Amino acid sequence: MFKIGHRGALGYAPENTLSSFKKALDLNVDMIELDVHLCKSGELVVIHDKKINRNTNKTGAVNEKKLEELKKLDVGNGEKIPTLEEALIFINKKTIVNIELKGENTGKPTAKIINDYIDNKNWESDDFLVSSALRNEIQIFSRKAPNIKIGLVVNCTFIGKIGCILKIPFGYLKFAKKIGAYSIHFSKRLIRKKYIKQSQREGFKIFVWTINNKKNIELMKKNEVDGILSDYPDRLF
After folding, report:
1. Helix orientation angle between 172-179 and 193-201, rounded to the nearest 10 degrees
2. CB under 8 Å to 31, separation ≥6 — which residues?
């Protein structure tokens, strides 16, 4: 079972920062999950939300800010928002990197960076896993980097002020087959044993996020999932 640090190890350090990645590496994770958006000046930056409101003292959309503006922000404990390349340089092949495409127009530039790291910087295809709930972006990525494993993120549906509707997205297995996915990444709010077994029978690895409670971790292990994403990855051992 893959022990996966969620946004690094956000239970111990500011999420999606170099200090969070360091903590995850110190805890000997099998994989680090991180999120990318494209900023206004064209760089891929490692941040979860499409806006900077939640974890900085400023407001606005990531895609409306240039990198130099984003670099001035404090995302906790003096940490800065890293670019994807800064994150890869820091992780330095010490574990698998699961890059989640969170924003629009991230598939193509992510493929370009990964292809460069494989062609010119001695990384291997197996050093990467790229996932997304954005079906168009994961398809674009896969066409540009066909040798990289991809994962389909399955989340509940959010509709305005109604909130989260706990319903499996229609046709997720069919789509996963269509794109040749390696893995399916379920929200803990949706995961059921029947979905785990059905998806595994179809040949997919099953990753579940975000599991922090020891009781739920043991349940996921009992249900034989293939990987768990946790804010506290040391609890997975």
Report:
1. 30
2. 2, 3, 4, 5, 95, 96, 97, 98, 129, 227
Tell whether the model's pLDDT for residue 83 goes beyond 60: yes
pLDDT at residue 190, rounded to an integer: 87
- At residue 207, φ and ψ (nearest 5 deg) are -110, 145
Q: Which domain holds residue 186?
A: 2-236
**pLDDT 10s digits, 157-211:** 555 554 555 567 779 999 999 999 999 999 998 889 999 999 999 999 999 999 9
Angstrom distance (rounded) from CA 95 to CA 52: 28
Active site residues: 6, 48
Residue 225 token pair: 């999932």
Q: Quote the number of domains for the chain.
A: 1
Averaged confidence pLDDT in the chain: 95
Structure tokens at 103: 């924003």
Question: What is the CATH classification number for the domain harbouring 52?
Answer: 3.20.20.190
Find how far residue 98's CA is from the centre of its chain: 5
pTM for the whole thing?
0.96
